[in-house]
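pipeline: protein-struct stage 2 | run 1193 | DUF427 domain-containing protein
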Amino acid sequence: MKAIWKNTILAESDETTVVENNHYFPAESIKKKYFTHSNTHTRCPWKGRASYYNIKVAGEENKDAAWYYPEVSKLATPI
């Protein structure tokens, strides 16, 4: 599985986890040079608090385009 934006591979892994039709990539598969931390946070009742990344490729930014769960709840341990 590849995550691509603006013809640029942002992440690539054969071991993503699918939850609610979203693919979660292992942290080590992310090309971090394209990701910057966002100040956005949301809360899912069963996954916990999500933090977001902005993605920047070739001078173009996609705000809050990727998210992760730094401390995932026990119900969502696979991600």
